[in-house]
Design a protein that fits this description.
Shape: globular
Number of helices: 12
Structural class: mainly alpha
Strand order of the largest sheet: 2-3-4
Number of strands: 14
Strand content: 5-15%
Amino acid sequence: MTRPDNFIGASPVQLSRAVLAHSAARLRAWTVDAALPFWVDHAQLDDGSWVEHLRLDGIPDHSAERRWRIVARQAVAYAQATQAGWWDGTSVARRSFEAYWSQGWTGDHVVHRILPDGTISDPRSDLYDQAFGLLACARLFALTGEAGYRYKAAELIARLDASKHPSGGWREGTVKPFPRRQNPHMHLLEASLALHQATGQADDLAIAHEVIGLFERHFLRGDTIGEIFNEDWSPHPEHGDCVEPGHAAEWIWLLSEYDKATGADHSAAQYALYERAFRNRLGILFDIECRSGDITRQTTRAWVQTEAIKAHLAMAERGAPGAAEMAASTIDAMFGTILQPDGTWVDQQNACGAPIATTIPVSTMYHIVGMAVEAERVSGGRL
């Protein structure tokens, strides 16, 4: 690869930024020119909702039941791309949210699953689903400034307040009331931070403060993130030692966002999680490990690698040596392996790097767009 002229004579810090900016610009171009238009053309339906996935030949599967949160996640992705000034997805985001809310909101919660014909197939509540509903409200309010999205966020928060758990946090919902999971709580943190960013109101950090308390008391277990818990947040006897490195990567980035919003300092936890997540991994994070470090599922999902990049970006802002270069090299390694020229992706690979996914899920776009926007921000903008 030819070395760009602006690399010549640069200091190590300038060189790291230039390398990252080059990779981020490549990623932005792929997102804008290939991914964003492709998915609107191939996966969004006339009513504004989305198919669950494409088949491997790129044809939408109109027979698949939809996890309804994917519609909220698509609203989030296109709102983020629009706010970044990359691509005018305002109408896409609006139509996605309208379908999501009008078809899925019961007055108490957003439903779990909807069939291709619009029939609600699973009306139950799930905390993970509600987190993405709140995130979509926040992103649409940030994009449009329209009070309706703020009111809907308040409705969701009111229902969440009614489902607080006596041991802290929120009840899991009726899809699977037990065991308790850190993951939906982590995404409530993400949603709360996004809402505060959109409104500037200190009260909108209330959920974030609650989740950070859970992180400090229960979720952070040394240099790993606990996943599955009993009702009182003690580790689950069967699954308490399972960890997902992708979630640790998400936490690294979210802790930075929380610290920026509040002035707190979770850098020690970030460094511990970061060192552990990438220890002897050569930049590749597998799907599931044990706390001992043994890999229990030698596969890797596309979303895990996007969150690894966001972790590198967060640590680059912390000044961690080599983090910016790791972000750049991981972005570059995604092209041709995960990110495909037509704007699609390979969702999962085995330990040898061979594709093993059976579909191309829509849900991955939320991770990719969020990572791409963050890469450009941290790198200092376009080349």
